[in-house]
Amino acid sequence: MPAPAEAQAFHASLPEYAPTPLTELPSLAAELAVGRVFVKDESSRLGLPAFKALGVSWAVHRVLAERAARGEDAGAVTLVSATDGNHGRAVARTARLLGRRAHIFVPKGVHPDAVTAIAAEKAEVTQAPGSYDEAVRQAAEAAAAPDAVLIQDTAWPGYEKVPGWIVEGYSTLCVEIDEQLAAAGVSAPELVAVPVGVGSLAQAVVTHYRSRPSGRAPALLSVEPEAAACVLESLTGGEPVSVATGDTTMAGLNCGTPSSIAWPYLHGGLDAAVAVTDGDSARAAGDLAALGVSSGPCGAATLAGVRAVLTGVGAGERRTALGLGPTSVVVLLSTEGTAANPYPAVDR
Ligand SMILES: Cc1ncc(COP(=O)(O)O)c(C=O)c1O
């Protein structure tokens, strides 16, 4: 099922909405020995330096509409969430714009500037001592209070509706890519690379590309940090598993458990999965910066991942398996700018 057109119409109605750039980078196409490479640049989306507000704005809109339909006083509601940085900042911004309160739980390892940015949106910030998964549990507990509602971008059995709306919101990004590729003379890409934390964005991407009535379906590649490769581990074992996460500059991808509603899409819809190091991501961020694209560690992870898959030992077999040739079109999702998560890139 494709995402409903209502989500795109809703985004288009927001005052700060504009499609983000899809930038062609011929030097990367030459390096990767493919036809064309495009980067979807989410460094400025609805006034924030990451793609996350697409999901949050639509989900909060749906939540408040449901509460209003039930006659509940939406004005008193507090939006509660755990975050690796970008999602919580989007929840805090959305709450502020709507005159609601926000309470955001932040695990360790999130860049201090990202935490400051959440507090600057007038949200209450609770620093959770453990991992992202533990922060999610704390946020869910806090959201059990009256007039609190959990706006979480990952699902588990019994908590699926809001994350489902968040995934719907992300689809706007894919619709924009379709329009932008068409304007560039491309009917469909051959490969799309997605950075993955819990897999909600990847769920949106799989849903979008696997529900096309006609045309070629691109190969879909997930990219995770080596320190938190829960989707790679799950795909390898054939069932969803949690992994112990470590430290990584790719904070937005530092998640130990795939979203329960994403898993069937990831299992059935991804063609390949790869894990990259912080060093690979920092080098990719430096290269993208040199080409004029602002990409934070999570955003640049996709270039690092595509490099790992399309070059080096065994690249020929991997390219064949993915159906790629010298004229193929590759799309990299760069989901955050450097301002979202300002770890230094490697200068080139
Ligand atoms: C910048 C960035 N990219 C990608 C992701 C991954 O999204 P998901 O957790 O839905 O896989 C996140 C999640 O927080 C993020 O902040």
TrEMBL record:
PANTHER family: DIAMINOPROPIONATE AMMONIA-LYASE, PTHR42937
Coiled-coil region(s): none
SUPFAM superfamilies per the UniProt record, alphabetical: Tryptophan synthase beta subunit-like PLP-dependent enzymes (SSF53686)
InterPro entries, A to Z: TrpB-like_PALP, TrpB-like_PALP_sf
Keyword hit for DNA-binding: no
Family matches, as Pfam families: PALP
NCBIfam families noted in UniProt: PRK08206.1 (NF006058)
Protein's UniProt name: Diaminopropionate ammonia-lyase
Signal peptide, first to last residue: none
Lineage: Bacteria, Bacillati, Actinomycetota, Actinomycetes, Streptosporangiales
Keyword check for Magnesium: no
Cofactor: pyridoxal 5'-phosphate
Domain Tryptophan synthase beta chain-like PALP: residue ranges: 16-314
Swiss-Prot/TrEMBL keywords: Pyridoxal phosphate
